[in-house]
Amino acid sequence: MGKKRNNTPKTTKKSDPPQTPPPSGKQPSGIPPTQSSVAPLPGLVEDNLFFLIIYASAVRMFTKHSTKDITSPAFFEESRKETSDALIKIVVLAAIALIVLGSKLRKRLGYYNKHVQAGFGRTLMSYISYIPLLAVLFSFVFVFGLTLFSNHEAVQTSRTVFKTNMLDIKECKEIIKMASRAKMNWTTDRHPAVPTVDMNVEEAFQDKDKAKLTKIFDERLSPFIEKTLGITRNSVRADDMFIVKYSAIEKGGQTGLKPHTDEAYFSVNILLSDEFEGGGTRFYQREQEPLDDYNSTIPSYDLSPPVGNAFLHRSRILHEGIPISKGERYILVLFMHIDQFDFETKQSYGLHPFSTWLNIGYMESWFNERYQGLKTELIDVQGQSLSHKYLRTIFYTLMYSTRLFSDFVGTVTPGGKFIEILDSDKTGEQGANWLHGQHMRLNEFGERVRADQTCDAGGAKLTNRGAEDIFK
Ligand SMILES: O=C(O)CCC(=O)C(=O)O
Ligand SMILES: [Fe+2]
What we know:
Residues 1-37 are annotated as: Disordered. The chain crosses the membrane at residues 86-103, 124-149. It comes from Triparma laevis f. longispina. One of its GO terms (molecular function) is L-ascorbic acid binding. InterPro entries: Oxoglu/Fe-dep_dioxygenase_dom, Pro_4_hyd_alph. The protein contains eleven helices and twelve strands. The protein starts with 43 loop residues before the first helix and ends in a 49-residue tail after the last helix. By secondary structure, it is an alpha+beta fold. Helix 2 (75-115) packs antiparallel against helix 3 and helix 9 (360-380) runs antiparallel to helix 10 (386-409). Among the domains are: 44-150; 155-339 and 413-436, Jelly Rolls, CATH 2.60.120.620. The longest helix is centred in the first third of the chain and has 41 residues, at 75-115. The strands form two sheets. Strands 1, 2, 3, 5, 6, 9, 11 and 12 form an eight-stranded mixed beta sheet that branches. Helix content is 39%, strand content 14%. Bound molecules: 2-oxoglutaric acid (AKG) and fe (ii) ion (FE2). The site of 2-oxoglutaric acid has 10 residues, from strand 10 and strand 11.
């Protein structure tokens, strides 16, 4: 026992290799530990394994593969609830994992910086130390994706065309008559980018006719919308409702409508007549704009429904009115918005971006509306702060990525399965804002960011389906 090594501490230099202390219990008692006897780090696996096992078991518990029946009336509600529940649990788990693994990582990196010589080895060890955190991140993405895709059919709604029988032939004829006794004439300038010969119902129809239509929509269209999109009926508003007239009889009459997208959340199209040849609506598989002619080679799906049939689709699916070759084709079109707030009372409808979480199309439109709102505010108000610009960019990016996502996951398909369940569920409950609150853009607080536009106002181009396209 000549030299008391432990009493003459030696300064650890950066270049010193980490030193292993004697196993606990074997250090001579009474001798204080030296600065150089640094506890080694436990191996990466043993340090994290226990926690990762607990984490993985928790994730496993929260990950359910959905086996719900899409034809069940409760399908959307259940799916939505299931997804948002799973999402909350995953976020909480990920937060805990980040805190625990983050502190382990910090300790590890601190150790390398202090006790390991800088160089390739240290860099490599530092990178390897991130593995547990990356594993958690990966599992987060995995679980999230699984939850979403286990409801594949609902994701698919963003590219599904849902149809149902809505009117009988007598009712269809009656609506065409309503147009012929309307207060205003047919217009051609309401949608300048993709013009139609049309008549706005709210402005042109007589009050008694509007009341009849409202009743029909409350009874038949509202349940259809609720079931297909999984949203409450009162949160929807017809931003534009109009009759379109295609005529192969009148000289210079419009016979078809070129490929376009509508500027709305979703569109409804009801066929009112059957005395024509040709016609129908063509949906394109992918959103590729601009398309100038009817002879596109993009895969498409044609719908030629029977008279009185209504179909509904996300407005941003590229579509066209196939030209007629004989007779006259009348359709009733609704460009529908989904509002979070009642625009007058400001009362919330209880929706939020994830309300129809599984309906990617809804999210896309929601982001688009926020983007459009900010854009309008930016144009209207001088000296906007820069944050507006950034926020706008964020919403645009979100909108664009959800659109790409929906293009990626979905093929345009007919949603025939819904017809059965819809036909058995007609109620008389008060429905949407069918004829109230047209041509509005609301911000995230339900306030109007743009004044009402009327058909004959010069500002009609603000409400058309193409001129305000975000790509322009
Ligand atoms: O003619 C059709 O069926 C399509 C009509 C349409 O897309 C529209 O009016 O926006
Ligand atoms: Fe359209």
